[in-house]
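[Target chain]
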Amino acid sequence: MKGFAFQGENYEPISCELMEPMVEWNPQRVDPNSPFLGLKGSQQCMGNCFQNAQRHFGRKIPELKSLAHNSTYSYYAAFESFLKETGKTKPDDVYMLENHAEFFNQMMGSLSLNLRAQVLKANLTELRNYFNKTKQIAILGIAKGDFRHITTVLGTTDSGFVITDPYGLYPYRQRFGHCIVYTEKFLKPIVTRMVLFRS
């Protein structure tokens, strides 16, 4: 789907290719603390990204339509229950990409759907090829010094990727972060892992 994204500190609009269907702006700073572990909004980046995935596929797959308007709070209520039920009770377990992917995959399996989340080493060429082929959401992990972050990939531009990033990374930190462009040059030294969704 053709659309516009915003690049640079002046938010210059540029043309882009967006996933179908799109998810709306989902600013996690307004989210309440998670129900069981009490994660603050600033600690809910990973759940925010997987919730975006649920909403995307909820608009795309009839069996998942109940997830189309799922909230981050509802996501964490179910995910934290999953952690408890599976004995994943270490403090870092709530931040493990593999655990969020396992939770997603278990849900898909319970509905007899073949869709699965795959956690992979970040590869921007593979990410671009995936998006061009599927027009589906993806998740991208970032590390810059001691800063660890995760974002949702909404699309591509000639120079990079369209991101929704409610808390943001330099130079967007603490600013509006929906449909912004992170160039490949900016991302290449700091991306770590990615999550792709495949049937």
About this structure: Helices lie at 45-60, 72-85, 97-110, 124-134, 184-187. The chain has a mean pLDDT of 91.
